[in-house]
Every structure is written in C-alpha cells, then in structure tokens.
Design brief:
The chain is mainly α. It has a single domain, classed as Four Helix Bundle (Hemerythrin (Met), subunit A). The protein is built from 7 helices and no strands. The longest helix has 33 residues. The N and C termini lie far apart (69 Å).
Length: 204
C-alpha cells in the first residue's frame, strides 16, 4: 500500500459545510452581533442608573405584575417552539404547525401587552424625553431598550408565520426541519434577552 493511501486511510475526510450548516452559522453570527447590541444597551442603562442622583425605583414606577405575566408567556412560547421542532422531527407536520402557531400567538400577545403597558405609562407621564419621577433618562432608556426588544419579537412573529407556510409547502417534514431549527434559535434568543431585560430594568 502506498504512503498516500495509508495517510488517507488514517485521516478522516473533512466534512464540507452544507447549506443547512451555513444557515445555522449565519443565524449564530447574527445572534452574536445582536447580543452585543443588547449588552451595550443594558450596560449603558446600568451606567446611567449608577451615576444618577434621582433615578426612580423601577419596581415602584413600572410594577411587575403585568410584566411577570408577559415573561411567563414568552417562556411558554419557548416550550411550544421546542414542541414544534419535536413533532416535525417525528414526521407530524400538522402538530408542528399547531405549535408554531401557538408560539407566534404567544409573541403577538406579548407585543400587545407591551403596547398596553406603554400606553399606560405614557398616560401617567413617562415619555422618551421626560419622567415625572426623576431622571429624564429613565424614560429614554426604558422605551429604547423595551422597544428594541419589542421589534425583535414582532420580527419573530412574522418569521414564525412565514415558517408555518414554509412547512406547509414542503412535502416531507425532514425538508423543513433545519429551517424550523434555525427559527427556534432566534426565538429562544429573544426569550433569553427578555429575561435579562426584565431582571435589569424591572427587578433590580
């Protein structure tokens, strides 16, 4: 046996990147960049709060009852996202689409409740450039951070609705499994970021 043959028999062949793996890599790169964006916003919020002499107590101003319910709703939507992927892996497109719809519904309700919270706070006097309870930057940071996350949830809902159509148009469940898995990466990220936002801006 030649030396080249022995060398090729010992070393495993490299597995080339497939379109599926490229999709996951692209999503991970996007999420890494997005994580930096959210991290910067939360770090700026912490700095403003630490250096302000009249920063209001978020718990007293914002309350947490509604927001805790919103947080629980997003956590449940992550569970339905997992179930959608599970049923698709089992070859049941119908149940997978049901759970994708429930995930999208949870996101839509979350955004609706956030809009209600915003309107309630604006009615009480909190604005992006004003705050009746102290530092004006409290209102600025609140609306920017929660609004940025709300845009992500809205985009996620649209993404999920498009994915339901995508799954419906694929004759074999396996053909859409990777796309749904990538969607799940995005949705779990959005949920995780909200837990951080809720902790930093409502509880601490």
């Amino acid at each position: 046996m030649s030396q080249a043959a022995v060398h090729s028999a010992v070393e495993p062949a490299e597995t080339p990147l497939t379109p599926d793996s490229w999709g996951k890599l692209g999503m991970w790169i996007f999420l890494a960049g997005d994580a930096v964006g959210f991290g910067t916003l939360l770090a700026a919020y912490g700095m403003m709060r630490a250096t302000s002499g009249d920063w209001p107590n978020p718990y007293a101003v914002l309350g947490i009852n509604l927001t805790a319910a919103m947080t629980f709703l997003l956590i449940c939507s992550s569970v339905t996202m997992v179930k959608a992927l599970e049923w698709l892996g089992n070859g049941d497109r119908a149940k997978a689409k049901v759970y994708l719809f429930l995930t999208a519904l949870g996101g839509a309700i979350f955004v609706s409740l956030q809009a209600y919270e915003w309107s309630h706070l604006i009615h009480r006097g909190l604005h992006i450039n004003g705050n009746p309870w102290g530092a004006a930057l409290f209102g600025t940071s609140f609306f920017i951070v929660t609004g940025f996350h709300g845009l992500h949830v809205t985009g996620g809902v649209i993404y999920l609705v498009a994915m339901i159509r995508y799954v419906s148009n694929r004759p074999q469940p396996a053909a859409s499994y990777n796309a749904v898995e990538i969607t799940g990466l995005y949705w779990h990220f959005v949920d995780l970021v909200w837990i951080m936002v809720f902790t930093f801006m409502y509880l601490l």
